Amino acid sequence: MTMHELARVTLENEMDLILAHKRSMKLAELAGLSLSAQTTFATAVSEVSRNTIDSGKGGCLILNVESEQRDKYIVACVKDEQTTTGKSPEGLEYAKRLVNKYRISTQGAETSIELYYYIAPNFRIDIAKLDEWRSHFRNEPPVSPYEELKRKNAQLQDLSEKIQKSEAQYRTLTNALPIFIFSLDNNGALLYANEWLLRFTGETLDYLNKSRWQTVVYQDDYETFSNLLYNTVTRGTAARQTQVRIKNKNNGAYIWHQVSLTPFKDADNHVQYWIGYIVDIHTQKVYEATLKDNIQLKQTQEQLKEQQSIQEKYIEELNRSNLELQQFAFIASHDLQEPVRKLLFYSDYLLNRYTNAIDTKGIEYLTSMQHAAQRMRNLIQDLLIFSQINKEAITFKSVDLNEIVSEAQQDFEMAIEEKKATITVQSLPVINGDRRMMKQLFENILSNALKYSKSDVPPVIDITYRKTDDQIEFAFKDNGIGFDEKYLPRMFILFQRLHNREAYAGTGLGLAICRKIVEMHQGKIWAEAKEGVGAVFYVSLPIQVLKNQN
Amino acid sequence: MKAWKILLVDDDAEDRAIIEDAMASVNTEGIIYFAENGEQALAILDTFLDAENTPCLVVLDLNMPKMNGTETLRNMKKNERFREIPVIIYSTSINSLEKEKCMQLGAHDYITKPVSINESRETAKRFYEFCK
Predict the structure, then answer these.
(1) Of A21, A286, A329, A400, which is the most buried if we count CB atoms within 10 A?
(2) CB nearest to A388's CB, from B14, B97, B114
(3) Cβ-defined contact of A385 to B96 (cutoff 8 Å)
(4) By the CB < 8 Å criterion, does A377 face chain B?
(5) By three-state DSSP, how is residue A61 classified?
(6) Region of A319 on the Ramachandran plot (φ > 0 left; ψ -120 to 50 alpha; else beta)
(7) What percentage of chain A reaches a pLDDT higher than 90?
(8) Distance between CA atoms of A249 and A191, rounded to whole angstroms?
(9) Other CB atoms closer than 10 Å to residue A489's CB: what's the count?
(10) Would you give the DSSP letter of residue A532?
(11) At a CB cut-off of 8 Å and minimum separation 6, what does B16 contact?
């Protein structure tokens, strides 16, 4: 059994009853029935429909055609949401008699009454004809303004349902996207904001409008943002965009976003409202910043490299000039010794052999000259020593420091006796070093201790040493005149003297020589002192000097 | 008192005179050979080498033209005939590196040239030690 629906009529009031009658008449007419048959069918439908309108609920008439191989019918189906079984109204009984066949069925609360009326067997019914009938019913001019209204209503209802459905889809879509989507009126006030925007900022739409976004947009970016939102929007008509930082409610971090606004225009090109979206571009921003940093880093690196090569050149230059200076100092001091010695010898000769020929004043001058020559000789000798302390001249060998000290003591025998000095020495280790330089070092320190002694107190010099984890530290303690420690930084520099030469003889090279020797041995030299109490000179050498001895 | 028999090798005539003076003040008797450089010194040694004339000491200055002190010393030590003659290095400089080198080459001593008459006498006395 194939039932083809052709038209529907809702059954709610008297007007619907007229419509039901009229549609039934038409269907019978289209099916090629006689006028009397048309009337009979329409009357039957009217009878059943009246019942539904009177006592039923949500009733509806559906007009169909049933076409089978043998039999063809026009069928009126009256549906009623409320069951009326058990009570067979008068109208229905009458209608049963008017039609060829009927069927009453109930499904849940719904009752359905079908009225069948024969169509002539030779009447041709096909799909095309059915379509034609359907369109006929659809385009049937309204019977009354009521029907017209009703039809428009139904159309609107249908459209509204469709729009609602589509809007719901869009809403779901905009809420699901991890971007901010919103619309603005021409004053920049939010009309709509998707969930993501509200969730990210943690604010309501009303609050955003009231606060003009001030609490969520980063302070430095707010002017740009507010310009875009409240000035561009009110004046412009073209799409705009800018980049601002927006606060994430969850962690309080300001994240870079790109804000884009597009005007939504009507047919007359007037801006109705603005559509906006805001996208997280933080990663891109960070990437850009990193890239920029990288470029700067590279530039800095290149500058450093350049600087380094310049420095290397300077060092090379310095080394070269240092070597030249060293050679010059050696040659100069070496060759200067000869004339100075002659000066000394002949002034002595004059003072000894020509005493009678020179007056007192002359002898005085001659003596001054001799003293000056002596100082010059000392200076030259110290310079020579200084120039010979260099990497080229150093030879590492086993050096017994006890031997070094006793040799130095022998060298100073006269001074020690003269000053009644006491020198106590702890048993010293054997180290790996340059013997000549070590002797020079010990001699210079001892010489200083003897030289800068108090005139009325015999010098007491104590030489000790101790080992630390990585150093071996020697201490030379005396009870001399000491010095103010503020002079320490200058003391180990060439030609620095703390005392005038009248009081204490010296070239000002002694400690500079010491420092150079110690540095050649990768060690350190420093001092502690107190004026009028004495001084302690310290020399520390790396502990390695105790190993690998040849 | 035994007489001098010394070879003094020095290119500086003044220095030679100073030492000659000082030596005379210690002992006027003796022979002092003079040479102005190493080459001359070796030639003199070669000529006068016999029991009668062989010097009991060679005093060598270091800075000399043609053949300097250390080279002369090295040559003497290479020659069997001269090897046993004592050598004193007699230099202006108190260069400890140089002194070390000379002592290693076989010099008996390293003496710095005098800066006074007294010192010159002391030096002469030290030389005379080898002639006794």
Answers:
(1) A21
(2) B97
(3) yes
(4) yes
(5) strand
(6) alpha
(7) 17
(8) 22
(9) 9
(10) T
(11) B8, B10, B34
Residue B111 corresponds to which tokens in the numbers above?
A: 């003496």
Nearest to B92 among A337, A352, A440 (CB): A337
Query: Coil, helix or strand for B34?
Result: strand
Contact call for B116 and A440, based on CB within 8 A: no
Closest among A416, A481, A483, A418 to A443, alpha carbons compared: A416
Using the Cβ of A413 and the Cβ atoms of chain B, whether some distance falls under 8 Å is answered with no
Would an 8 Å CB–CB cutoff place B44 in contact with chain A? no
What is the pairing mode between strands A3-11 and A190-193?
unpaired
Rounded CA-CA distance A213/A207 in Å is: 8
Can you tell me the distance from the alpha carbon of B81 to that of B83, in angstroms, rounded to the nearest whole number?
6
Higher-scoring residue by pLDDT: B27, A417: A417
- The CA–CA distances, whole Å, from A451 to A384, A505, A533, B26, B95 equal 21, 8, 15, 35, 23
Tell whether the model's pLDDT for residue A548 goes beyond 70: no
Supply φ then ψ for residue A324, to 5 degrees.
-60, -45
pLDDT at B77: 87
The ipTM estimated for the assembled molecules is: 0.82
Q: How far apart are CA B7 and CA A469, in angstroms?
A: 58
Interface of A with B in 328-367 (CB under 8 A): 334, 337-338, 341-342, 344-345, 348-349, 352-353
Q: What is the pTM of this model?
A: 0.50
* Pick from B95, B96, B116: CB nearest A348: B116
For A348, which of B63, B95, B115 is closest by C-beta distance?
Answer: B115
Q: Is the pLDDT of residue A217 over 80?
A: yes
Q: Using an 8 Å CB-CB cutoff, list chain B residues near A342.
A: 14
Average per-residue pLDDT for chain A:
85
Higher per-residue pLDDT: A129 or A488: A129
**Mapped to the 3 state alphabet, what secondary structure does A341-387 carry?**
HHHHHHHHHHHHHCHHHCCHHHHHHHHHHHHHHHHHHHHHHHHHHHH
Residues of A in contact with B13 (CB under 8 A): none
- For an interface test with B, which of A335, A343, A347, A348 has the most B Cβ atoms less than 10 Å from its Cβ? A348
Tell me, what's the pLDDT at A539? Answer: 93
d(CA A50, CA A47): 5
CB A100, CB A65: distance < 8 Å: no
Structure token digits, residue A465:
């040493």
Res. A498 pLDDT band, cuts 50 70 90 = low
Q: A256-273: per-residue pLDDT in tens? A: 888 888 888 887 778 888
pLDDT at A549: 54
Mutate to test the interface with A, among B116, B119, B123 (most CBs of A within 10 A): B116
Query: Which of these ranges, A83-92, A421-430, A514-523, has the smallest mean pLDDT?
Result: A83-92
Cβ distance B93 to A436 less than 8 Å, yes or no, reads: no
Structure confidence by residue, pLDDT tens digits, A223-248: 888 888 887 666 666 778 888 999 98
Q: What is the pLDDT of residue A236?
A: 67
The angle formed by the CA atoms of residues A19, A24 and A28, to the nearest 5 degrees, is 150
Please enumerate in sequence order all residues whose Cβ is within 8 A of that of A132, keeping only pairs 6 or more positions apart, or say none: none
What one-letter code names the amino acid at A398? S
